[in-house]
Amino acid sequence: xxxxxxxxxxxxxxxxxxxxxxxxxxxxxxxxxxxxxxxxxxxxxxxxxxxxxxxxxxxxxxxxxxxxxxxxxxxxxxxxxxxxxxxxxxxxxxxxxxxxxxxxxxxxxxxxxxxxxxxxxxxxxxxxxxxxxxxxxxxxxxxxxxxxxxxxxxxxxxxxxxxxxxxxxxxxxxxxxxxxxxxxxxxxxxxxxxxxxxxxxxxxxxxxxxxxxxxxxxxxxxxxxxxxxxxxxxxxxxxxxxxxxxxxxxxxxxxxxxxxxxxxxxxxxxxxxxxxxxxxxxxxxxxxxxxxxxxxxxxxxxxxxxxx
Amino acid sequence: xxxxxxxxxxxxxxxxxxxxxxxxxxxxxxxxxxxxxxxxxxxxxxxxxxxxxxxxxxxxxxxxxxxxxxxxxxxxxxxxxxxxxxxxxxxxxxxxxxxxxxxxxxxxxxxxxxxxxxxxxxxxxxxxxxxxxxxxxxxxxxxxxxxxxxxxxxxxxxxxxxxxxxxxxxxxxxxxxxxxxxxxxxxxxxxxxxxxxxxxxxxxxxxxxxxxxxxxxxxxxxxxxxxxxxxxxxxxxxxxxxxxxxxxxxxxxxxxxxxxxxxxxxxxxxxxxxxxxxxxxxxxxxxxxxxxxxxxxxxxxxxxxxxxxxxxxxxxxxxxx
Lengths: 308, 321
Ligand SMILES: [Zn+2]
Fold this sequence. Notes:
Chain A is α/β, with parallel strands linked by helices. Chain A folds into two domains: 19-76, no CATH class; 80-305, 2-enoyl-CoA Hydratase, Chain A, domain 1 (Alpha-Beta Complex). Chain A has helices at residues 18-27, 32-37, 59-64, 80-87, 114-125, 159-175, 193-212, 227-230, 253-260, 271-276, 286-300; strands at 47-49, 56-58, 94-96, 100-102, 131-138, 141-148, 179-185, 217-225, 239-242, 282-283. In chain A, the strands form two sheets. Chain A has a seven-stranded mixed sheet, with helices on both faces. In chain A, helix 6 runs parallel beside helix 7 (193-212). The radius of gyration of chain A is 19 Å and the shape is globular. By secondary structure, chain B is an alpha/beta fold. Chain B folds into two domains: 8-54; 68-313, 2-enoyl-CoA Hydratase, Chain A, domain 1 (Alpha-Beta Complex). In chain B, strands 1-2-3-4-5-6-7 form a seven-stranded mixed sheet. In chain B, a hairpin with a 2-residue loop joins strand 2 (99-106) and strand 3.
């Protein structure tokens, strides 16, 4: 089975300080494949409804199919650990910069306290932040990989996401490993204000440095990718692919509708729409992603870490 | 009384001033009590004037930053620079009037100027999308960045936009791509970049030309991850909370200085820059020139490295072992 555990059924729901939280997480010794293999992790009788074709699908069946609907091909969302497991060669992922967590620089309290929101996101996702990064290999190419997790405050980019993404670019640069980022995001992390906005410049500057050194960068856009993340590192890749029907754009559809006061064209901002308008390279179904990235790296990867 | 644009936070004051003016129209010699009332009201007006314009709330500053008579990019270019040659077009699709790109001379130094451009009236604003650039606006700005880099011209940018234009065509032509590419390009130009926040600094549309080696903020300019209205409608589910959002977002010039994002603040006349254009032109011209004086001697590689370090240092987080 490819994927098992979804959500946080087994997680500790007691409030704990961030340092303890990291320790508890460390103690669990996370490896996606092992954690997900135990058949007992999926309670019997868990079903999900496909939002596209409305079929009711058994969780076990979904998990076996990388959470793609067997009936209509709809791609269910993946968590960051699931995404990494999908993309990398088995047991090759080694997490980096895991112990970075958000502060509350704006002392954001209304309408909802930011630290409380963060804590509930941590509990819900058992992640420290909205992006997970590390070293791994894809089709035997050593890479730096990162995956964003929409469950964590809508995978919005605050200081931590910006920092971890910038470090992923820098690690790729230092080790001359291609960078592969799987992206999903609602945009900026409002509760970090200007510090959040500036992460767009920070990550884009890091992306520009990687490009200058000729180290390849491939981005995989998934549903949904919006705002400040789209308008920064997400689209600065050498090759950009997207999962079928993913919505990708700068401004959200509701706001555009309000501005122009008319219905949006059919298929607006879908991955297929972006291919049609020349903004991304290809739409790749989830089942083909790993092989596709592997083949891309055959073309783009630097032999022996150096260019001749 | 001459009709003027009244900002929401000024309304109580303007109302009181109107009453005072009405009383003064009356014949005081027939009614001695009126003279007492007028002098009382006069003192009230003075006090309210003081209260209204000192310690401005963030939402009041946002209103000032949007004041129709506030000096705009074109005004600064016309007043502070000589021998201006405006350049047009992105060489891909069109010429976005919401973005101004010019070659210009500041105190004898040749520079490249890029700025968001709002209109002075409705007609101009319709053509300029109220200062909200389309992708071709950012691509036009990039053209000037490349030109500046190629010919060693320092870059001066003026920020005054509610944000990038939220439209169907903007998305079709890659609004996000244009902004991202502008960020990547600006991070590596081998010339000094001085940014001046003169009015609205709305989100990614401002940031695309809005970071560099110095950030100078006008006292009542704002620079924010989101407009207070958008933030309120997303987080408070009600745009009427914009006033609260303006506080929460920490988007004023003073906030930016506090977070180490802005380097300096240019004071404005009491009530806002629109009260004294000439004073603003000379202050801004001087500060930009001073910043350039500090930066022009730097080695291009040092400039780029320092700019990167400056960006890398922005962010607040805890790091455990
Ligand atoms: Zn389905």
